[in-house]
Design brief:
It is built from seven helices and no strands. The protein is mainly alpha-helical and 136 residues long. It has one domain: Serine Threonine Protein Phosphatase 5, Tetratricopeptide repeat. α1 runs parallel beside α3, α4 packs across α6 and α5 packs across α6.
């Protein structure tokens, strides 16, 4: 709901109203270990960056959103719009460089940027990669 409302704010030309909603969406996504929500909020923040005439930041945010999601989300038109606008403003080479910087970021980098402490693992249990054994 926060992300949808933020996109409505952006449509109304109010990027500054959208920003705190999106920062809250990032925090809630982190608390729920919901990388999809965090990624969507980062894409929306890329639109905020574009509204503030910062296409380099927008490209980095799109890259970070893709990194958290694991791949570009071709079904999310707002992500494609942010990419197109940032690429048009920067040119292919500068866009690619900024996107790669963002793509190299991790979940922990996002936590640091937004001043969020890593929440405990869901259920208070440490998670392991599939196939991992607790006694290994």
């Amino acid at each position: 709901m926060l992300i949808t409302r933020a996109f409505l704010d952006l449509d109304e030309g109010d990027a500054e109203r959208a920003r705190p909603r999106l920062e809250q969406a990032v925090r809630l996504g982190v608390e729920g270990y919901d990388h999809t929500t965090v990624s969507a909020a980062l894409v929306a923040l890329a639109h905020v960056a574009l509204a503030g005439d910062d296409p380099k930041r927008a490209a980095e945010l799109v890259g970070t959103a893709d990194a958290l999601r694991g791949m570009p989300d071709l079904s999310f038109p707002e992500a494609l719009d942010a990419e197109r606008a940032a690429r048009a403003a920067l040119g292919d080479a500068a866009y690619t460089a900024a996107y790669r910087r963002g793509r190299g970021r991790t979940f922990d980098d996002v936590l640091e940027e937004f001043g969020i402490t890593r929440p405990p693992a869901p259920g208070g249990v440490l998670t392991r990669p599939s196939g991992g054994r607790p006694d290994a």
